[in-house]
């Protein structure tokens, strides 16, 4: 799951090199949204700690 933001950022970099600025910006925003969603899922996950 955590690889999704990296793939989106790599695709955005390829779009920048290809001269597709709007697509690169959209992929950057998508990667930020995916990162925030994954953080929310991770931060609210209960810890299974047995003391």
TrEMBL record:
Among InterPro entries, the record links this protein to: DUF5993 (IPR046035)
State which residue ranges cross the membrane.
28-50
Entry keyword set: Membrane, Transmembrane, Transmembrane helix
Question: What is the recorded name of this protein?
Answer: Uncharacterized protein
What species was this sequence derived from?
Pseudoxanthobacter soli DSM 19599
Specify the taxonomic lineage. Answer: Bacteria, Pseudomonadati, Pseudomonadota, Alphaproteobacteria, Hyphomicrobiales
